C-alpha cells in the first residue's frame, strides 16, 4: 500500500544536516535543483492505495537507484553507506536516526515498480526541461553518436566473471593481511561452473567470518560485489547468453556482444535523446528517432552533427524537409542512392561493411561500374555463404545452392551532390569541430558511471541503466553550468 501523501520526517537531530553536509555537496545541490515528485506521479498507479503494508516511498527508492548510478557500487553497499553517510541520508530525505531499507527491496522495486515504465525518456525529458528553464541550452544543434555496452555475458563467461571477482577480493585481502593466504579455500581448476560457485561461496564464508577483515571498506565492497555476482549467476547462468544482446562490430576485425545506446546531445553537452538497441544495429537509421525525441523535449534544431554513419540518403531527405543542415561527411558506402531491402541491411561505419539481418558482417566488397560513364557506380558487398546456408533467416534472403550472397549499393544521387557542396562551406567546417564533445560524454558514461557493461540481463534492464546514467550526467552538467 502506498500512503496517499508523502510524510515529512521531523527529528530533533535534523539540524545536523546543516552542520555536516556542505552547501556545495553534489547531493545537496541535486536535491535543491530538482523536485522529485514527478517520480511519485509516474509510479503511483503501480501501488495499491488501500491494501497491504505501507510501501517505502517510490521517490526514496528511486533516489537509492540514483545513488547507485552516481557512485557505481552494489545494492548492498549503497544501502550500507546510506546507514552512516549523512549526505546520503539528507539526499534520501531521512531523519539522521532513521533505519535504512533492506537491499533486496531495490531488486523488487526495479522488477515490479519500474517495469513497463518509459524511464529513459521520462528522465531525459525532465533534465532537458530544467536546462531549458535555466537558460542553459542556447544552441540549435544536436550532436549524434552511438556508444556500445558489453552484455553481462560478454566477453567473459559466467565462470570467468566469478574468477575475476574472486581474484579481486583475494588480492585486496592480501594487501592488508598476507597471512590469509593459508586460510583460503582450494581454488577450482576445472571449467565446472557449479564447482566455481561452490568455491566462491566458501571464499565468502571464510572472509566474512573474519570480522576484522570483512569490516574494512575496501574488502567489504569487493566481498559484496562477489556475493551479488554469485546470486545473479545462480539465477541466470542457465541462459548461455543475454537473449536481447547481439554481436556488433567496432572494426572489421573486432566485435562485441551487447547493446548500443544512440545519443543526441546539445553543444552545451546536455543529452536530449537516447535510444537503446541491440549491438548489431546501425547508427544512421536511429537518427530520425533521436531528432524527433529531441524536438519533443523542446529542442529547436537547425543543425545535426555526426559522423559518416548519419549521411544516408533517407536522413538527408528528412533533414532537408525541415531545413536542417546535416554536418556529416559522405562516404560511398553509406550514401546510397537506391538499394534493395534498405530497412534490413545496416551499414557499420567502423568495420566499413554492411551487416545482414542476422548480424553477419560482409567479408569483402568490390566496386562495379566505371566512373563518369553516366550510370551510377555501385559497391557490392559479399557475405560468407557457409553462414548463409545454416542461417535461420535464410528464407527469401539466400537462394539454396547459390555460391555467393551479395548486396549492392549505388553511390551517387542529387542529395549527395548537394551534401558534397555543403561539405566545402565554412559553416560545415566550423560545426564539425563540435563532434568531439559527444565522444567525451560517452567516455564519462562508461568510465565514471559504469555504462561500459550491462549490470543485468535484457534490453529493458539496459534501458533502465541508461536512464539513470544519463539522468546523472545531465544533472551534473546542469549544476556545473548554472
Q: Would you give an account of this structure?
A:
The protein has four domains: 16-117, no CATH class; 122-151 and 249-335 and 413-476, Ribonuclease H-like superfamily/Ribonuclease H (Nucleotidyltransferase, domain 5); 158-236, no CATH class; 345-407, no CATH class. The model has no long low-confidence stretch (mean pLDDT 86). The protein has helices spanning 16-20, 26-33, 37-43, 58-71, 75-84, 86-91, 104-113, 119-133, 158-176, 193-209, 211-214, 217-236, 287-296, 313-321, 385-390, 414-422, 426-431, 436-447, 459-481; strands at 141-150, 246-249, 255-266, 271-278, 303-305, 325-327, 346-348, 353-355, 364-368, 378-383, 405-410. Strands 1, 2, 3, 4, 5 and 6 form a six-stranded mixed sheet that branches. Strands 9-10-11 form a three-stranded antiparallel sheet. The chain has a two-stranded antiparallel sheet with strand order 7-8. It is α+β, with helices and mostly antiparallel strands.
Amino acid at each position: 500500500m502506498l500512503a496517499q501523501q508523502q510524510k515529512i520526517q521531523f527529528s530533533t537531530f535534523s539540524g545536523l544536516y546543516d552542520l555536516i553536509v556542505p552547501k556545495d555537496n553534489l547531493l545537496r545541490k541535486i536535491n535543491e535543483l530538482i523536485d522529485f515528485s514527478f517520480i511519485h506521479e509516474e509510479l503511483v498507479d503501480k501501488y495499491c492505495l488501500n491494501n497491504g503494508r505501507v510501501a517505502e516511498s517510490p521517490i526514496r527508492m528511486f533516489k537509492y537507484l540514483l545513488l547507485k548510478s552516481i557512485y557505481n557500487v552494489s545494492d548492498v553497499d549503497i544501502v550500507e553507506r546510506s546507514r552512516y553517510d549523512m549526505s546520503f541520508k539528507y539526499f534520501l530525505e531521512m531523519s539522521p536516526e532513521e533505519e535504512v531499507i533492506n537491499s533486496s527491496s531495490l531488486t523488487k522495486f526495479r522488477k515490479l515498480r519500474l517495469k513497463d515504465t518509459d524511464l529513459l525518456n521520462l528522465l531525459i525529458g525532465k533534465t532537458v526541461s530544467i536546462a531549458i528553464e535555466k537558460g542553459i541550452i542556447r544552441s540549435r544543434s544536436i550532436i549524434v553518436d552511438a556508444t556500445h555496452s558489453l552484455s553481462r555475458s560478454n566477453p567473459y563467461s559466467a565462470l570467468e566473471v566469478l574468477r575475476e571477482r574472486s581474484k579481486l577480493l583475494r588480492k585486496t585481502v592480501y594487501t592488508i593481511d598476507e597471512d590469509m593466504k593459508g586460510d583460503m579455500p582450494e581454488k577450482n581448476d576445472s571449467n565446472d561452473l557449479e564447482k566455481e560457485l561452490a568455491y566462491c561461496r566458501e571464499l565468502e564464508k571464510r572472509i566474512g567470518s573474519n570480522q576484522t577483515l570483512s569490516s574494512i571498506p575496501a574488502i567489504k565492497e569487493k566481498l559484496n560485489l562477489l556475493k551479488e555476482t554469485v546470486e545473479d549467476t545462480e539465477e541466470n547462468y542457465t541462459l548461455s547468453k543475454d537473449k536481447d544482446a547481439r554481436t556488433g562490430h567496432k572494426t572489421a576485425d573486432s566485435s562485441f556482444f551487447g547493446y548500443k545506446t544512440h545519443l543526441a546531445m546539445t553543444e552545451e553537452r546536455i543529452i536530449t535523446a537516447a535510444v537503446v538497441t541491440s549491438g548489431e544495429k546501425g547508427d544512421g537509421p536511429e537518427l530520425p528517432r533521436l531528432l524527433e525525441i529531441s524536438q519533443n523535449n523542446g529542442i529547436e534544431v537547425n543543425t545535426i552533427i555526426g559522423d559518416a554513419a548519419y549521411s544516408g540518403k533517407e536522413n538527408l531527405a528528412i533533414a532537408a524537409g525541415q531545413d536542417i543542415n546535416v554536418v556529416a561527411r559522405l562516404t560511398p558506402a553509406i550514401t546510397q542512392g537506391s538499394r534493395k531491402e534498405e530497412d534490413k541491411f545496416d551499414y557499420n561505419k567502423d568495420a566499413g561493411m554492411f551487416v545482414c539481418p542476422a548480424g553477419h558482417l560482409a567479408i569483402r566488397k568490390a566496386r562495379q561500374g566505371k566512373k563518369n560513364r553516366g550510370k551510377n557506380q555501385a559497391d557490392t558487398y559479399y557475405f560468407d555463404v557457409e553462414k548463409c546456408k545454416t542461417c535461420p533467416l535464410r528464407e527469401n534472403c539466400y537462394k539454396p545452392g547459390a555460391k555467393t550472397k551479395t548486396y549492392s549499393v549505388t553511390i551517387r544521387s542529387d542529395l549527395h551532390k548537394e551534401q558534397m557542396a555543403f561539405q566545402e562551406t565554412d559553416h560545415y567546417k566550423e560545426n564539425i569541430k563540435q563532434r568531439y564533445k559527444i565522444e567525451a560524454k560517452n567516455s564519462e558514461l562508461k568510465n565514471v558511471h559504469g555504462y561500459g557493461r550491462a549490470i543485468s540481463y535484457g534490453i529493458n534492464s539496459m534501458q533502465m541503466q541508461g536512464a539513470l546514467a544519463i539522468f546523472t550526467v545531465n544533472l551534473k552538467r546542469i549544476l556545473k553550468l548554472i
